[in-house]
Predict the structure.
Amino acid sequence: MSNEELIRQANIQEIAEAGSQIYEETKSQYEPQYNGKFLAIDTESRNVYMGETTVKAVEQARAAHPEKVFYVVKIGFSASEVLAALARGDA
């Protein structure tokens, strides 16, 4: 199944809510020592994959779970900080 099909079939709202909750419950394991790295979280298994970039984290996650969509978070940053950095061209 292609990435587009996976995303189309996924319940994005459910993944976002579950992923955010999992990160909040576990972030003390990652902050502050891994700030700036990325986590791809499989919300069903609760497995977490870390990478230097979003792509690296998702590649690791897809290697383990090729048919899933993941919640991705930048460690130590709020969503608004990440969006502001993207808007500035910093990320």
